[in-house]
Automatic annotation (TrEMBL):
Name of the protein in question: DUF6894 domain-containing protein
Pfam families: DUF6894 (PF21834)
Organism of this sequence: Methylorubrum podarium
Domain DUF6894: 2-61
InterPro entries the UniProt entry points to: DUF6894
Domain of life: Bacteria
Length: 65
């Protein structure tokens, strides 16, 4: 299931976007009562796009698991 962030974030580069994805994942891991248990995330990814919707990168949730 895709959960789209319609607001998004303006970031200086792709590395900053990857860092934000990993920081968001760390926050999600601290809140399993909201986001579920991390073991259930193994197939999920953060999809990083530009304003036009072009996929620039994917950060798998299991990057931190």
């Amino acid at each position: 299931m895709l959960i789209r962030d319609e607001e998004g974030d303006e970031l200086p580069d792709l590395e900053a976007a990857r860092a934000l994805a990993l920081n968001t994942l760390r926050e999600m891991m601290r809140l399993p009562h909201i986001y579920g248990q991390p073991r259930e995330w193994k197939r999920n990814v953060f999809v990083i796009t530009n304003e036009a919707g072009t996929v620039l990168a994917e950060v798998p949730y299991d990057a931190l698991l």
